[in-house]
Design a protein that fits this description.
Length: about 575
Amino acid sequence: MFAFRALGRFAGRWCLAVGIALVLPACAELPKDVQRPVSTSLASPAGTPLADLVQQRRTAAGARSESGFLLLDGPPAAYGSRLALAEGAQKTLDLQYYAIHADASTDRLLQAVRDAAQRGVRVRILLDDFHSTGRNAQVMRLAFVPNIEMRMFNPLAGARGSSLGRLFNALDDASRIQQRMHNKLFIADNVLGVTGGRNLGDAYFGNGAAGNFVDLDVLAAGPIVQDLSRSFDAYWNNERAYPVQSLVTREELEPLRGESRSERAPPAASGPPRPPDGEPRPSNTTAAIGRRAAVWDEKPMDLRSADFVWAPAAVLVDKPAKIPADAPRGSPKTGKAPGLVVTQQGRRPAAAARGGSSLAAAASTAAEGETVVEGLLQLIGQAKSELLIISPYFVPGQDMKQAFAAALARGVRIRVLTNSLASNDAPVAHVGYARHREELLSMGVGLYEMRSEQAGLSSAFGSAGGSAPGESRSMLHSKALVMDGRLLVVGSMNLDLRSQLQNTEIALLIRSDELCRVASGQIEVAMRDGAWRVERADNGLVWRAPQNSGLKDSSTEPDASVGLRLLLKLFGPFAPDRLL
């Protein structure tokens, strides 16, 4: 994330950029009159091998619902499913991401995408433009591969050699730059697609040398994917999406090529490359080299044996206009144009569910919100017994706290799993959560904070990496909600004001008792064995140690240094909730 969340990663460079901006004017601007040829998803996915496979799986299951879902709760499934989609696509591949890091995991995955383009598959890649500097800019070279089109959403003007230069150039346009496209989609032939919390990179697939994200995705099959594709098309054809060729030439990318190895062969063991900005630094270079080589041994998922759960579902997605279009520098901003789309092949929200009146009602309720997060708050207003929530960045605004208070008054049990200070990859985001912690506990919300190094949590969601204990820390990145054991929401959104008000998000709302049981079981294990339970005490707060961990309860933020706790206490009062 940008601003104060990114400040935790770019503090020194940001301060330098501010100082320079006081004496030098910004100069680079985005191109004008950009040509954006309109294109859309595959009109009819029927007849492709992937479409035939989905139909065979549905027939074998004797399912009444047309769409199927598989929780991808660990790196092997998350990586293998994307490999399988890239290798199995025959007509189209559509990728939409907030971040694609140029590293070993992505090198191999994008090689499968290049191979698809070579065999005639039309590939479209839509990437938010905040992280595409330095070695990560090499991902943009895909735009110059035949059969691959690539566009950057809400781009930053300026050279791509370093984050510093682009941040400096964006200082007088900070309002727009704060708002990012956070959606994640990987769609093959408009019939199979992955959505959820993961970006593309080593740390998201268990291959990070110093830290890995614990995440959750869903592999969706059938007609629901057409709704995901319509969402992609809306962003792809939006005026905020700039073709790569309008922003940078192949020659301009060439000087940065030495920082990244993007060829098909596995990387040589001559030493690990410098990690992308915002990702953990490796502490063990030998282990890092081994992980990079191991990526090329990963196998694609066997989709023929995928055990889909067939259920009614709906797609919740923010409109692209939530992020304002570029305007001349110095001109007044018109502000965001919110609008939540609950899409189901163009039907109205009340009839959006594919089977199941309860899902139709839930979709209709969610549509009363103006954004994905506000739609979820509308759903919380319908909860009857229990809410289980995972949000790595949890910064509740006033309306969120009101929704919790109303649910608690109805007797709903609410428990939230979020990052501890030690496990948060952007510690400054913890400030916004910590200032609301005592109030939430007083209301009756159960709070659980993830341990940074804990095998129990990682195994609950699938291994967070191949590291030995103590070598690599785990960082929560899953975004999910289970309501009353019947409704599961998995998406890109956090329950924070940034997701609510600024970033665009997408989510799948699935009506399935079976999937809710699976997800709830994973969350329960994570809370019990891999998280600190926060409680109020006479002299403040106490963190109860996870069961069977051998740890002692703590009266301070566990596993966090005194220096980090002090820094955030000093910085916290100056960090607005809406920017965290």
